[in-house]
Amino acid sequence: MDYAKRAAELKDTILADRHYLHAHAELPFEEKETTAYLVSELEKIGIPVQRFDDYTGCIATIKGGRPGGKTVLLRADIDALPIQEKSGVACSSQNPGVMHACGHDCHASMLLGAARMLWESKDELCGTVKLLFQAAEEAFIGSHYYVDKGYLEGIDAAMGMHVSATAPSGTFAVRDGALLASCDNFKITVHGVSAHGSAPQFSKDAIVAASAILLNLQTIVSRANDPLNSLVVTVGTIKAGSQFNIITDKAVMEGTVRCYTKEARQMVEGVMRRIVENTAAANGCTAEVEYNYLEPSVRNDDLALNETARESFRTLYGEEVLVETEKATGSEDFSYIMEHIPCSLFVFIGCYDEATGSVHAVHNEKFRINEEILPRGAAGYARFAADYLEKAAGGENA
Ligand code: NI
Fold first, then answer.
1. How far is the CA of 330 from the centre of ligand 1 (A)?
2. What domains sit in the chain, N to C, each tagged with a CATH number?
C-alpha cells in the first residue's frame, strides 16, 4: 500500500478522531470514554480488539496474509493532564481542568489511522501487528499493567511515537542510543528531638540535619558521578516545622533523579543512602530513604531497527523529513515496554509550526499542534510495521 497517499485520503477521518479524543480528555487510569471510543472505532473497522475489565486502554491485533512469523507492536498513549485548557482550538476539552496538553490525543488518532490502513492492507503484511492504546503514561507506570499481566508476550519488536514541540512540523527524529532519561523519586524522612526554639541544647534539630543532607546531596552529581554522564538530582519539596519558636523533630524531603544508565541509577541510590544516614547521624538525628525506581531511560540501542524506521519515513516523505534530536531529561514509560522488548525504538514527530500557532511546549495550557502532521504520523506507524515485518520475514532484523 502507498501509506502516504492513503493517509492523505484518510485525513478527515484521522482529524475527526483527534477532535473527539481532544474534546473528551481524561486523566490517567480514568480513560473510560477514550477507551470506549477507540474500541468502538476499531470494532467498526472489523479489527479484533482486547479490552480489560480492570484497566483502561486496549490492544488491537491485525494478522497479515503473507508468510512471516514475527509480531510488531505499535504503541500510542491516550491519557491527558490536570490542566485547564487555554489553547483556543475549536475541539477544546469539555472536561474542566483536564487537557490533552502532551499530544496523546494525536498519538491515539495517528495509531487509529494506522490501524485503518493496516487492516485494509493486511493481505500484504508478512506477520502480525499489535496496536497498544496505552493508559496512564503521565502516571509514570501506566505501561506496567500490560507487561506485568503478560499481554505483551510473543512480540518481537516495538515502536512508540511522541509529538515533539521543538522539532519542525511533520519531521521525524530517530535518535540512536539514549533519548530520554530514567525517572526515579525519593523521600527522605529525618527524625530528631523537638525542643523550645530558645533552647537548642535540648534538641536534635531535624531542619538543620535536613539542610545539611540537602547540601551534601549536591555532591552526588559533583563528586560521585562520572562528569561524562548526564545526571540530575533535584529536591522538590521540604516539609518541616509547625511554629517559629519550636525546634521540630521531623523533616521530610522529596525529589527526583534523572539519568541514562542502570549503573548510574544504582550508584545514586547507594550514595544517597550513605549521605543521608551519615549526615543525619553527624547531627544527632536518624533518617531513612524511600527510593522508588519508576521509569528506565528510553534508549534506542537496536541500531538496525532505527535504520528500518528511518528508511520507512524516508520512503514516505523523502530524506528531508528526517531531523536530528538531542537527548532530553524528560521521561516516558514506554521504556518499561522497551526493557521487555529489547528490539524497540521511540521516535519523535515534530509539531512546531509558527503559522498555526503551534509554538507552545508540551504540558502548557496553550499547547496546540499543526494537524497536518497527523496523517504523516499514521503513515509512519503503518509503514514502519509493514517494513519491519517484510524485513524480518526475509531474515533481516530477526
Ligand atoms: Ni507525553
1. 10
2. 3-180+296-392 (3.40.630.10), 183-295 (3.30.70.360)
